[in-house]
Fold this protein.
Amino acid sequence: MPNEHAILSASSSHRWLECTPSARLELEFEDYESKAAKEGTAAHALAEHKLKRKLKMRSDRPVSEFNDEDMELYTDDYSDYVFEQYTKAKRYDENAQIFIEQKLDFSCYVPDGFGTGDAVIISKGKMQIIDLKYGQGVLVNVEHNSQMMLYALGALKKFGKEYDIKKVRMVIFQPRRENVSVWETTVTQLKKWADKKLRPRAEMAYKGTGNYQPGSHCQFCKAATKCRARAEEKLKLAREEFKMPPLLSDAEIEAMLTKIPDIKKWVEEIWDYATSEAVKGNKSWAGFKVVEGKSNRKYVDEKEVAKACINAGYNDIYVKKLITITEMEKLMGKKEFASVLGALIEKPAGKPTLVEESDKRPAIVTVQKEFDVYKEEN
């Protein structure tokens, strides 16, 4: 393989396919692995180990500071799912094979393009790509997911002719969101996309040519905070959407509502960047200074505090209370928790909040609507 890190990586393809110069622009920024990314890496290592053991393959259990009960359960779910899919493939084709953490080369479409497929299952005429997403912040959909399509193209290059593959099944397994997203397509449709969209845009991205195109794909772009095209777009939105007539109409407010979260997020990103640079001493900003924020008092050593209090004659110094519901459920296990405490647990209604129509939560029937329904019925 070329470099350890591809300029046009599969995981960032949704970005450089839409904003072709972004990949080269990101090279100007240092790599930074967030805590969430490190946790994801640990989960992948543990999931790989468990799957290999199910397949009777040698593997040493990885050790990580992130390993906890939740990660154990979620990686169990993933390895069980992949093994189940492999078992089904073996029933269909006794010569079916599975490849774990398979290196995939799709450089025939993307310059220096390569990646790693978490699980690739090959059987006569069929191929399945399964990808573990351990993050819980963003719900990932597999349909027309460019990362998965690139993995599929790499797997086709490696196994396509030998197995005469015609159909491709792609799966995003996101256990912390209870999301198993599945999409099937044909090799013909996949290659059509690769020839018409992928190849020409990948060539532009590799050269750093094309126009900057701000959008939802800017999330996680290393250049997003300082990107001029994105800043101009946000400022333009602010100018257009926050005009100050005597009174805003409902239609104007409605139009603004969809823009506010994105603008707010961008403003917070700029503020966080400016704060971080100032705290590090890298930059100073005219009219601003770094000060010590508010903090709360805390005990230096709780054992020593307790000893000092008791020696001074104070005994009523402890508060005894039940552990949290989450801790209790972990202590008992889900089944016993439901059996022992199911009737003693309630979940109060959450505070009403305004969200976009695409949110999966059901809409609340307001008091006014209930009153209107009552009037109609009576």
